[in-house]
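User: Hey, quick favor. My workstation is busy. Could you predict this chain's structure for me?
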Amino acid sequence: FTRIDQRVDSMIAQGLADEVEALVESGYSPADPGLRAIGYSEFFAHGSLDRDIQAVASRIKSNTRKYAKRQETYFASIPSVVPVYPGSEASIASQIKEFLRPLT
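Assistant: No problem, here it is.
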């Protein structure tokens, strides 16, 4: 889950809090579909806009980890699904070639 933590930290560093604040100032609310998504909804965990960025980041990381785990569990239940693990393009290409080898 290190990649999730890095990605969330990057999103925060790139101005996610400012983006959410601008959306709220534009008239969007936590009830709007886009702001109910992971990465946005955590800003409204207590009903109003939470400006404690560390707490928000922690909630985003936790909720993203839970979502990733649900995805892994779901895809693992499908017999024909073959996982491709993240890495360099060469690593991913190698995994795909290995999977396709029996077909050639």
